[in-house]
Amino acid sequence: MMKGRFEEQFEEQFKELKLCIVVPTYNNATTLTHVLDDLLAYTSQIIVVNDGSTDNTAALLENYQNKLEVVGYSKNKGKGYALRQGFKKAWALGYTHALTIDSDGQHKPADLPAFLATCSQHPEALIMGSRNMEQDSVPGKSSFGNKFSNFWFWVETGKKLPDTQTGYRLYPLAKLHNMHFVTRKYEFEIEVIVRAAWKGVPFKAIPVDVYYAPKETRISHFRPFRDFTRVSILNTFLVLIAFLWARPFGIIRKMNRKNVKEFVRKQLHENNESNAKIAFAVTLGVFMGVAPIWGYQMLIALALAHLLKLNKVITLVASNISIPPMIPFILYASFKTGELFINSAPLRLLDPRQLEFATIKEHLVQYLLGSITFGFGLAIIAGIVAYLMLLIFRKPVQVDKNYVK
After folding, report:
1. 404, 155, 199: which is closest to 303 by C-alpha?
2. Is 404 inside any structural domain?
3. Range of 159's domain?
4. Are residues 263 and 373 in the same domain?
5. Running DSSP on this structure, what letter comes out for residue 334?
6. Could you tell me if 138 and 164 lie in one domain?
7. DSSP string spanning 237-288?
8. pTM score > 0.85 for this model?
9. Tens of pLDDT along 186-230?
10. What 3-state class would DSSP assign to 212?
11. Backbone dihedral angles phi then psi of residue 48, each to the nearest 5 degrees
12. What is the pLDDT of residues 285-317, one digit of tens each?
């Protein structure tokens, strides 16, 4: 295919950025030719992954020999697996970035220049094509699923994205190269962005156009019940990992002298809240950090801070008392405090004779009562210490009477 100057300009940009396009495909022969022809007008740096198609996809791809790269295997293994194989091939060929586009024709190559421009400005970012999910042609289940996915992405990472389910993305491969993923189906596109966010990869969202074929001609391999169940299970694990590990360590990773000074300036010196109200936020955060609701401590702390009109940032920071290095000490102190209520016999976990329901129940009640009591006591102490330190070190502020209720 001959290219004009306009198209050659984009080909040069693809080469300069070491960027390729990865097209995973499974039984989309009716649209694949059109998609590839449109992409070839912009670049020949294309990798097609034939994910075990049973239609005439393999025969169609023979027409593109010497025009693009093809990765294929006989058994269908899922979109996530296909993308991972595409990334592996791209890295082996020396590409540092990979742009993914679906083969069903819903994404438009006309948006490629926007990806190129954004990648040039932000080469380390994971760029997400944001679709307009409010247009009439978008299926209702897709719009709902996207909102559902956006919410859980925010819970798991603390970041907001307008479209977490888009397949139109540009990945910085160097950031993902040494990561080991566990999913192979549609849920991979959730796992990869969540774990990239945990790793500190920045995100950029750009608006893209989208075309949904009429319902009677639309081809979809998404199986609502089975795939939604997979996504739900994945989100459950990601939430637990996020609140027990990823987000606490993310906060620690960001703690440097500059960030600490910025936090003190914004949350203390430029804050018009009273010392008592700030100390109360610390008290709530510490209590929730010890409370026996592991995996949901920060989420519930945030909700309570909102209801009580307390400083959400200070509450969340204080709740991070339960960072992984502190967890063994918190569990031990909670269990020992529980002896004030239940003086159970020492539990030897290696002795199977003690692992009876009554014994487990007794120790669980001991931990729950001890955790609440220890958390309450520690929170009161933390609140008092915070209040005294604020009185000593914080300059008097003019409190807005309309703000403090």
Report:
1. 155
2. no
3. 5-244
4. yes
5. H
6. yes
7. HHHHHIIIIIHHHHHHHH--HHHHHHHHIIIIIT--S-HHHHHHHHHHHHHH
8. no
9. 899 999 999 999 989 999 999 999 876 655 554 555 555 566 677
10. coil
11. -100, 130
12. 999 989 988 777 888 888 999 999 998 888 988
